[in-house]
Design brief:
single chain, 224 residues, alpha/beta, Rossmann fold, 7 helices, 21% strand, binds S-adenosylmethionine
């Protein structure tokens, strides 16, 4: 077999192919789906203000349902690799078309405006990246938040043993060239709560809080 066929799927193609069934999949497989997504919006107080929010890996906009319920006039910039996911988001929120800017691209590569956002939100998207990649992104997030701005991250969490196992598998695939450093592949490397909190400390996020802890996912809230 051609070794290329053996590679994990590329991130963009993975989500493009599954966009149509994505919402149903999440509703079925994310344990305590309602509790998790409600927790993502929890730090946002009810407001009619045009708060500025950057949504990294916005997908089809699952978290936006809960965010718009709190802040119906929020101005949202959503970044995602997958046009198919973005198209579904834009269709879902067509009554808010003027409030949404959908950008197709990688949040790892794109520049963010400095001190622009009241909130930056990333949900179920960062568990594909190594600690050093996340740290670099955290620096960009920090610079893009207004003073007093908030960062909310919701993602899968695993035990420390499971994390070590998944990271070792990821690194093996890197070594075997199944995963290439210069490309984004769909591989899961979620962190334990301990590792994630250590990473926030390393990023200089002094004020962070775990505001939701489910069986398989957590939500963190960080104030600038
Ligand atoms: C599991 S989905 C989560 C979507 C949405 N946030 C939610 O909770 O339903 C992960 C999303 O992150 C996007 N993604 C992954 N890596 C990305 C990157 N580097 N830049 C932009 N989007 C990315 C994928 O295309 C996908 O739509």
């Amino acid at each position: 077999m051609d070794p290329i066929d053996d590679r994990p799927e590329k991130m963009k193609e993975f989500f493009d192919l599954r966009a149509d069934s994505y919402d149903d999949h999440m509703a079925e497989y994310v344990s305590n789906y309602e509790g998790f997504y409600r927790a993502v919006a929890e730090p946002i107080p009810k407001t009619n203000k045009k708060i500025k929010l950057l949504n990294l890996g916005c997908g089809t906009g699952l978290e936006l349902e809960y965010i718009f319920a709190k802040a119906p006039n929020a101005l949202v910039t959503g970044i995602d690799l997958s046009q198919e996911m973005l198209d579904l988001l834009l269709d879902k929120y067509k009554n808010k078309a003027e409030q949404i800017e959908a950008i197709k691209g990688s949040y790892l590569d794109l520049d963010f405006k400095k001190e622009e956002y009241d909130y930056i939100v990333s949900v179920m998207s960062l568990h594909h990246f190594l600690p050093e990649v996340k740290l670099e992104l955290y620096n960009k997030i920090w610079a893009a938040l207004k003073p007093g701005g908030k960062y909310i991250e919701g993602d899968y969490v695993v035990t420390e043993d499971k994390e070590a196992e998944m990271l070792a598998d990821y690194k093996e695939q890197l070594q075997e060239n199944k995963v290439l450093n210069e490309d984004l592949f769909h591989l899961d490397i979620p962190f334990s709560i301990e590792t994630q909190q250590g990473l926030f400390e390393k990023a200089g996020f002094t004020d962070f809080e775990l505001i939701f802890e489910g069986d398989e996912a957590g939500v963190y809230f960080i104030k600038k």
